[in-house]
Automatic annotation (TrEMBL):
GO terms for biological process: transmembrane transport. InterPro entries: ABC_transporter_permease (IPR051393), MetI-like (IPR000515), MetI-like_sf (IPR035906). It is found in: Cell membrane. The chain crosses the membrane at residues 28-51, 96-119, 131-152, 172-202, 231-251, 292-311. This is Sugar ABC transporter permease. CDD domains: TM_PBP2 (cd06261). Belongs to the binding-protein-dependent transport system permease family. Residues 93-308 form the ABC transmembrane type-1 domain. The lineage of its organism: Bacteria, Bacillati, Actinomycetota, Actinomycetes, Actinomycetales. Keywords: Cell membrane, Membrane, Transmembrane, Transmembrane helix, Transport. It comes from Actinomyces oris. One of its GO terms (cellular component) is plasma membrane. It holds the Pfam family BPD_transp_1.
Amino acid sequence: MSTTTTTPGVSAIRTTSLRRCREARAGIGFVAPFLAMFAVVFLIPIVVSVYRSFFRDVASGSDLYGGGEKVSTFVGLDNYVQAAGQPAFWKGLGRVLLFGVVQVPVMILAALALALVLDSLLVKRVTVFRLGFFLPYAIPGIVAAIMWLYMYNPSFSPINELLGLVGLKVDFFGRSIILWSMANITTWTFTGYNMLIFLAALQSVPRELYEAARIDGASGWQIVRRIKIPMVRSASLLAVLLSIIGTVQLFNEPTVLYSQNQWMGLDYTPMMMAYNSMTGALSPSGSGPASAISVLIALVAGVLAALYALVQNRIDK
């Protein structure tokens, strides 16, 4: 008769392995809902959009007027060639890039300034001010654009009424000003959002650093310039990257302002061009050309974000 013995070391290893397997399964169970929703609302639409960009809906008939139902036909890179060959696409892209070059720095600096004020000892009711600054972001973008459309209307603009008191009158719908009218809407909407990013970074800085700096005789401005601002560089990278992506996707503001300014055209920005191609308001129309424009927009946003991240990393080194 033989007996099998298990050494204490082997038993402990088995117990640890079983515990790790249970923890791994539990972790996968918690993460699975997020992964499923992420795939449904993010990954699958991207794959479908890229796939559709290689197809175009064409009439199945062969008579003079086409005739028949539309059939999805593989056209390879033709949709991309047509989209990239349209001057309207590059003009719209130039508008949003000019928009971003001016609007993004103004918004980021304003958000940083607000965050520094809230992180200082100057403000007593931080929660009230933080909520007030963030509130514009809570308003849906299309609603905010409609609200500012009223504010800009030359017939009953309250802003022009105030400017009229000092003898000024501004046509916010003018061809040379309307882009900056949109920039004002975007800045008003997203400054509070970016402020929270900076404020979270500032509040994660150990307070001992400030106390040590004060003991060494540093002034409040020196603490801001030498400690606080350098410590939020990673937050500024995130805020700028999100702003670059959002700028290339500019859609709500120009679409709403177009309702009162038809001269803008349906292709004022690349996103407007993609949407109106999808709905058939622009030619070539259909999901294929619209998907190709969308993919090009995503590539431009990705390249710009990567270039900024690369430059920022080299500056930090």
